[in-house]
Write a structure and sequence with these properties.
Chain lengths: ~270, ~450
């Protein structure tokens, strides 16, 4: 009694789901009529039907995704080119005609046509869809290079370091020549660039104490500044900054390196 | 007990004087009572922390430099854990292995101790508790031998083990009129965060932590005598200037820098109300004094040379040592009155002399000097400022710089690159008991504070 009731319920449920593709075999189709006299060629099997094959959205920017969706009936297998391969097979013993549907997200880097091939004994059926890919907004082109270097670049290119003796802030003979050239160039640059300040950094080698070297670096920067001002460079566009031995440009333990660090260095802001 | 210490003091002073110039004897005080500090045992959860506890106690007592530490290998096998463990034998026999501990185990050869610490640690209500005793083992009986016994509490972890050990050690040292260094701080400069910042740590190198975070160059720290403020030199605002931070809030406190390309090397007077520093306001780094907030500035020197690192005598307040390259000479250590008068060179004129630092008694300076070595190869020296006698404490092991004194006047912290990179080291003012306190990054410019 209970079993019967359950069976009837299952049947009713199944019937109600039939339209939605109930997998339960409802009834075998009648066998084909027995061939009579001559054996006619079997009718070609019905080809699969591609109900739809779409790409949503069909236009994307590079890097975005498009969703391919398809539904095919009567196919044994469905494949898509562009490396996607087989995307669906009819389930063995499944409903006839088999319904194969699915979707895939794709990220083509350029406009791409996807070809869906549905195959059964009746042969392949293809359907294609194209995803249009637009390049993303290109970065704004670099500003057209100015012919004129920036103030800082001009200082870095034109103005030479000045070197000092150990534990000294006196301007050496070679430094006088360099500073004289620097003065001429600074006057020109200051004319070309009405704003901008030059910082004269004073540096020392590693051998003295950090404290004394900070005072010594200060002296070196001031000595270089005073020399330039005597040669007519405007003092209000020069400032000094001692780093002592805190920012060496060379860290080896020998005289050639120490000499490189005993310097006044010029930067433009 | 005091009598014994004083008589020991006299004897030891004589023997030390033979080995070292008088200067070191005068600083170190010289006497050495012998103390035995056997490892204590711990019960329950205290047990795994006993390594830290015993190590901290031993080091605090050894570092104080008032004792000769009896060699551990000589200790008897029977170690008391509480006074009741001592049993006076009818006939003392050091070879009787079954006997209970007795005072003579420690006072007789080979230990030859005058004093003994002992005790044990246990867990009480989840806390670490240390029972510690100090005994004078030269006494005839237990009652007379006990100097003190005390109970110490701390959290049941390594910090607790260190805390109870530091407190026990401080109580032992107090009996000898010595303030423990435990609780004192060393501030220094480290680049381990990527840029030079001010850092702080305990005197033994524990608990290293970053104080500033300017991501510029911050260096040359100096602490106010009450330990509440730290002044240093920083490029954080562009040119090198003096910045002051509270060590309580770690925030910046206003300091009025004079208009100058370089203001550096702030150091406090003993009352914390004055700051001496060097400023290039005149175009040359010169010595200035101002109120602690930078107001009321006075110029003390007037030369066309580089003068840096003024340090006010912490005892008299009327004397300043500083470094000067006056006369076109290489930098040397000078002294002057605090009004700038009576300038005298203290060092001989040889090499480069730099980084002077007063001892707390205001009688001696430690400083870095290249005398006898190539430029840049500094060693630590100590000088009696009155007699100008000096003694060299380090020799030839890399660059040794920026010595500053511990509050006890017996220890010196300094930087040395003897191991490769510059690190912070401490030592006794006689050059012994070297300890490396830092290892991460490059560390320099130590300042020892209360």
């Amino acid at each position: 009694m209970t079993t019967n009731k359950a069976g009837a319920l299952a049947l009713a449920l199944c019937l109600s789901f039939f339209a939605a593709g109930c997998k339960k075999k409802v009834g075998a189709p009648p066998p084909p009529p027995k061939p009579e006299v001559a054996k006619p060629a079997p009718p070609p099997a019905a080809k699969p039907i591609v109900k739809f094959f779409t790409a949503e959205p069909s236009s994307i920017e590079r890097g975005q995704a498009s969703s391919l969706k398809w539904e095919v009936t009567g196919a044994e297998s469905v494949s898509i080119n562009q490396g996607l391969g087989v995307v669906g097979n009819a389930a063995a013993g499944g409903a006839t005609p088999a319904v194969i549907s699915g979707n895939r997200s794709v990220f083509p880097s350029s406009t791409t046509t996807y070809v869906l091939t549905a195959t059964n004994a009746g042969g392949p059926v293809t359907e294609s869809v194209t995803v249009n890919v637009t390049a993303p907004q290109p970065a704004p082109p670099p500003p057209t290079p100015t012919v004129k270097a920036t103030f800082g670049e001009a200082i870095a290119r034109e103005i030479q370091d000045v070197f000092f003796d150990f534990d000294k802030s006196d301007i050496r003979e070679d430094a006088r020549n360099v500073l004289t050239q620097n003065a001429d160039k600074l006057k020109t640059i200051f004319r070309d660039y009405p704003t901008g300040t030059v910082t004269i950094e004073g540096h020392a080698d590693e051998r003295g104490s950090a404290e004394y070297n900070l005072g010594l670096g200060d002296r070196r920067a001031i000595a270089a500044k005073d020399f330039l001002v005597q040669l007519g460079v405007p003092a209000d566009r020069l400032r000094t900054l001692s780093y002592g031995k805190e920012r060496p440009q060379c860290t080896e333990n020998n005289e050639s390196c120490w000499q490189k660090n005993r310097r006044a260095h010029f930067t433009g802001q | 007990m005091k009598k014994i210490i004083f008589s020991l003091l006299a004897i030891a002073a004589a023997s030390i004087a033979q080995q070292r110039p008088d200067i070191v004897g005068a600083i170190m005080g010289s006497q050495k009572a012998v103390i035995a500090v056997p490892d204590m045992r711990g019960a329950g959860r205290a047990e795994p922390l006993m390594g830290v506890l015993n190590g901290t106690l031993f080091r605090d007592l050894e570092d104080a430099a008032v004792f000769k530490m009896a060699p551990k290998s000589m200790y008897p096998t029977r170690v008391p854990q509480q006074p009741q463990d001592f049993r006076k034998p009818l006939q003392y026999d050091p070879n009787n292995r079954n006997a209970a501990p007795w005072l003579q185990d420690w006072s007789d050869p080979p230990v030859n101790a005058n004093y003994l610490t002992f005790g044990y640690a246990a867990e009480q209500d989840g806390q670490m508790v240390l029972f510690g005793w100090l005994f004078n083992v030269n006494q005839p009986d237990v009652a007379a031998a006990q100097v003190f016994g005390k109970i110490y509490f701390g959290p049941m972890d390594e910090s607790g083990a260190r805390k109870v050990a530091h407190e026990f050690a401080a109580d032992v040292l107090k009996q000898f009129g010595v303030e423990s260094l435990a609780g004192t701080k060393i501030y220094f400069v480290s680049n381990r965060s990527g840029t030079k910042e001010i850092w702080g740590m305990d005197y033994d190198g524990a608990g290293q932590k970053q104080i500033t975070n300017y991501k510029s160059i911050s260096t040359m720290p100096s602490v106010s005598p009450d330990g509440t403020r730290i002044a240093f030199t920083s490029w954080a605002l562009g040119q090198p200037q003096i910045l002051v931070h509270s060590l309580e809030t770690l925030r910046r406190i206003p300091f009025l820098n004079p208009r100058a390309g370089t203001n550096q090397n702030a150091s406090y007077s003993a009352d914390g109300k004055q700051i001496a520093f060097s400023s290039s306001a005149s175009g040359f780094s010169q010595i200035y004094m101002a109120n602690a907030d930078g107001s009321g500035i006075r110029r003390l020197t007037n030369t066309r040379s580089v003068e840096v690192e003024p340090k006010i005598n912490p005892k008299t307040g009327t004397e300043i040592v500083f470094v000067s390259g006056r006369g076109g000479a290489s930098p040397q250590v000078y002294r002057m009155n605090s009004d700038g008068a009576d300038v005298q060179r203290l060092t001989t004129g040889e090499g480069q002399a730099t980084n002077p630092s007063w001892n707390p008694q205001g009688t001696h300076i430690a400083f870095a000097w290249t005398r006898g070595y190539d430029p840049g190869n500094f060693n630590i020296f100590v000088m009696d400022v009155n007699t100008r006698e000096y003694v060299q404490l380090t020799s030839g092991a890399g660059r040794n710089e920026n010595p500053t004194w511990a509050p006890d006047g017996k220890h010196i912290v300094f930087s040395s690159n003897r191991g490769g990179r510059s690190q912070i080291w401490s030592m006794l003012a006689d050059g012994t008991q070297l300890r490396q306190l830092t290892s991460a990054g490059v560390n320099e410019k130590p300042a020892w504070s209360k």
